[in-house]
Amino acid sequence: xxxxxxxxxxxxxxxxxxxxxxxxxxxxxxxxxxxxxxxxxxxxxxxxxxxxxxxxxxxxxxxxxxxxxxxxxxxxxxxxxxxxxxxxxxxxxxxxxxxxxxxxxxxxxxxxxxxxxxxxxxxxxxxxxxxxxxxxxxxxxxxxxxxxxxxxxxxxxxxxxxxxxxxxxxxxxxxxxxxxxxxxxxxxxxxxxxxxxxxxxxxxxxxxxxxxxxxxxxxxxxxxxxxxxxxxxxxxxxxxxxxxxxxxxxxxxxxxxxxxxxxxxxxxxxxxxxxxxxxxxxxxxxxxxxxxxxxxxxxxxxxxxxxxxxxxxxxxxxxxxxxxxxxxxxxxxxxxxxxxxxxxxxxxxxxxxxxxxxxxxxxxxxxxxxxxxxxxxxxxxxxxxxxxxxxxxxxxxxxxxxxxxxxxxxxxxxxxxxxxxxxxxxxxxx
Length: 430
Ligand code: SDX
Fold this sequence. Notes:
The chain is mainly alpha-helical and 430 residues long. 50% of the residues lie in helices and 6% in strands. It folds into two domains: 47 residues, Single Sheet (Rubrerythrin, domain 2), CATH 2.20.28; 350 residues, Citrate Synthase, domain 1 (Orthogonal Bundle). The strands form two sheets. The chain has a three-stranded antiparallel β-sheet with strand order 1-2-3. A three-stranded antiparallel β-sheet has the order 4-5-6. A hairpin with a 7-residue loop joins β2 and β3. The longest helix has 27 residues. It is globular and about 80 Å long. The N and C termini lie far apart (63 Å). S-citryldethia Coenzyme A (SDX) binds next to α17.
């Protein structure tokens, strides 16, 4: 039974802190009065026990391995829906009717082109720039082009900015890819669906017709669905914090992309594939597992472990099935990297260290094998994660803007630096 309040005894006083319950999942203790009543802060580096906001968008049960988008289980959505439907659901809270879907899809389709000067913006990058560096720069630069959707107090402009972000991310991602391989940019095609359009912009060339493989497009569309949102993860929290200052949505998404790039977060899909390539063969797995367990070795099994999931990441299971589907469609009978991944997972899941620390494969463990098979270079893996996560960032940003409890995010600290002291003239310093 959840208590109505929690008492905190600090010295001679007892503070009664109200408890707020959600619809499902852990309740929260409202500590808003803690500083004024006790003169103390809470201390929770990494926010392992801290709810930063109230949200209705995504729910994760880490122990049960459950992920719900607006209450719908991810496996059901991945089985029966598509990414555009998932975008509508995350943004508006309900599954769209056919008419709502068609209107939403039409609006996205007609925002897929970027300002023509953006292509000149790309010319400023070196060809060997990491595509994530290009994405941070180009998405941030959108605020230099779309002045008519920067007023965050205007619901219409917020909606236009949201549609623009969702629509233009595939175009910018494809441009980032084409730029690194020295091929001309390919314009979006309005007759193609969202994910087929992206594949066409990545792999078509002006010299010949490019037919998108519908099985591969469906697989990538499902991968986008799996990556669409994930509660208050590091990059989403970055977007919310940036947005809490009133920054425009394009700048906030650019901040989210920067955070996602880290190997502990979205960069793990790139790092996981590089790790599998470094391991190279099944017989070399034990030495890497030993390194992952060695406290003195910074090496970690990339694609394993999660702050919230202390069970199998439900997305990883669907990801694994999609990997087999893509390899089968491409006629890839045996992929040595997949063999290493499957054996590494088997060993880790039977090893006491991983069992005790509840380390399971996460979404990044299998995604790299699939994306490589689809034809993407490793450097594009996190770009695809950012493409898919944009709708989650935008939905969370919009929820934050409309939250009556919202104020600028401004955490405090435990100060352990020098107490106040007087200035010492340089002539007397030793
Ligand atoms: C994503 O938050 C999200 O929702 C993120 C995400 C999303 O959709 O937005 O799900 C996407 O970022 C998935 C995670 C991708 N990152 C990786 O695969 C990188 C490898 N994993 C780890 O770096 C780690 O597991 C984290 C960062 C994912 C989680 O770290 P935590 O929650 O801070 O846990 P921790 O680092 O404190 O680890 C707990 C223990 C530690 O041992 P002790 O200090 O307690 O002895 O487990 C160990 C860690 O050393 N550990 C690992 C490990 N992950 C954690 N040991 C070996 N290999 C690993 N992968």
